[in-house]
């Protein structure tokens, strides 16, 4: 298998990245295909799809929809020539809300009634943060971004309900305003943070024990900054217990053909 340096990962086109994942590379996608948007993935039977669509509409900060594939469809404009069943590094499969598998190929679980939602991901604005001089701790430390369930409940929709999930990036106190300003220009990929500072206000007892992803070291003088996260609908799946749901493994995203700049607002 090809060895991918950080520079190679950043320079890879979306098609090259998806091919690498299709061929068995399993790795978090933060730092891949610089300049291209990444997406959370959640496929759910058509019978539950309207509830998920309404849940996303009522919770746009955490569930900004970039695209929806029709029942059974495996490719679309955001992954031209790709295959949603193989082109994510790792998936999570739920039955009745319980995780039953983390495969790298979901062909054996695929059904023709599955509707796939592609949801904005905060990895998309990380290049803009770096260009603005804000370092990304999980990239620097070579780990998956830490994600946490919060005590904030999302607006329910039909059978779908669940807590807000957030991703966390430590930011130097003097650069927090810059991070807010930069990310606020990307509302389609979660936009500005939902909270800065005390994690206990979000019901997070221990930053060293994330619910998803991996912990990062928080340097002196840095504040934890929390963004809404596209794992939120997977938390709703766990709480609402549809018969089947397939998502990306947290931090292992679909790299799309859309440019980051497609989602940049003035």
TrEMBL record:
Gene3D superfamilies: PSTPO5379-like, PSTPO5379-like domain. SUPFAM superfamilies: PSTPO5379-like. The keyword Ribosomal protein does not apply. Its EC number is 4.2.1.-. Keywords: Lyase. Belongs to the D-glutamate cyclase family. This is Putative hydro-lyase P4U43_00030. It comes from Arthrobacter vasquezii. The lineage of its organism: Bacteria, Bacillati, Actinomycetota, Actinomycetes, Micrococcales.
């Amino acid at each position: 298998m090809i060895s991918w340096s950080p520079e190679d990962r950043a320079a890879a086109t979306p098609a090259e990245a998806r091919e690498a994942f299709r061929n068995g590379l399993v790795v978090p996608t933060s730092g891949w295909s610089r300049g291209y948007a990444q997406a959370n993935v959640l496929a759910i039977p058509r019978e539950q799809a309207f509830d998920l669509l309404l849940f996303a509409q009522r919770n746009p900060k955490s569930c900004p929809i970039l695209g929806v594939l029709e029942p059974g469809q495996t490719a679309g404009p955001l992954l031209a020539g790709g295959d949603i069943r193989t082109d994510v590094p790792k998936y999570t499969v739920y039955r009745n809300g319980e995780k039953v598998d983390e495969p790298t190929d979901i062909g054996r679980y695929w059904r023709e009634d599955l509707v796939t939602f592609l949801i904005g991901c905060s990895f998309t604005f990380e290049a803009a943060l770096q260009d603005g001089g804000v370092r990304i701790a999980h990239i620097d430390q070579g780990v998956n971004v830490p994600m946490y369930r919060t005590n904030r409940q999302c607006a329910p929709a039909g059978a779908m309900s669940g807590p807000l999930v957030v991703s966390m990036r430590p930011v130097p106190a003097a650069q927090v305003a810059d991070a807010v300003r930069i990310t606020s220009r990307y509302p389609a990929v979660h936009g500005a943070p939902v909270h800065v500072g005390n994690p206990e206000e979000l019901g997070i007892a221990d930053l060293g024990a994330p619910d998803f992803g991996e912990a990062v070291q928080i340097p002196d003088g840095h504040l934890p900054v929390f963004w809404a996260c596209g794992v939120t609908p997977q938390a709703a799946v766990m709480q609402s217990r549809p018969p089947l749901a397939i998502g990306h493994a947290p931090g292992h995203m679909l790299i799309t053909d859309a440019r980051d700049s497609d989602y940049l607002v003035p």
